[in-house]
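I would like you to sit down with the record closing this message with an eye to the fold:
=====
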Amino acid sequence: MTNRPSIGFIGVGLMGHGMAKNIVEAGYTLTVLAHRNR
């Protein structure tokens, strides 16, 4: 059993969405903080 690190993103945005998807599909735990101020 391997221990994988947890990964966090702040401000995912359009480009980060694809990166976050790939990280989750690779089996990592992902925490995302998104703040939209529009």
Observations:
- The mean pLDDT is 83.
- The radius of gyration is 11 Å.
- Helices lie at 13-25.
- The first helix runs from residue 13 to 25.
